[in-house]
Fold this protein.
Amino acid sequence: MNIYFACSITGGREFEPVYQAIVAALLADGHEVPTAHLTKATVAQAEGALAPRYVYERDVNWIQNCDVLIAEVSIPSHGVGYEIGYALNAGKRVICLYSEGRKVSKMITGNPHPNLSVQMYSDNLHAISLAREFLLVG
C-alpha cells in the first residue's frame, strides 16, 4: 500500500521518535511511504532548502497517488491540517493519531467525514497498532 505519512516539521519535533516508530513499522510491513524522510532529525534543514512551490506540488502529487494518509497530529501544524483536508477532499481515507493528553483542533476531532478516523494513543506501540488496524479496515 502507498501511504502518505504526515507530521509536524516546522511546528516542533517533540514527537519525532513516534514518527520514526510508525514509519519504520509501515516500511517493515512492506508498505511504500514516500514521506519517510520526514522522520529524520535533519528534515527541517533539508525541506527548508526547497522552494515552497516545489514542496507543494510534490506533496500534492504524493497525496493524489497514495492509498491512505496517516497523520500524527499531536503538534499543531498548518501543513498537516491542509494535507488532511486535501486528502479527504480527494476521497482518501485518513487516520489522525495523537498522544494521550494532547489537545487536537476541533476542526479535526469534530469532523464527521466518513473517511476520517481520529485516534488517541498511549505509546509508540499503541500508535503502530492503531495505524495497522486502520490499514486492515480499508
Remarks:
- The radius of gyration is 14 Å.
- The chain has six helices and four strands.
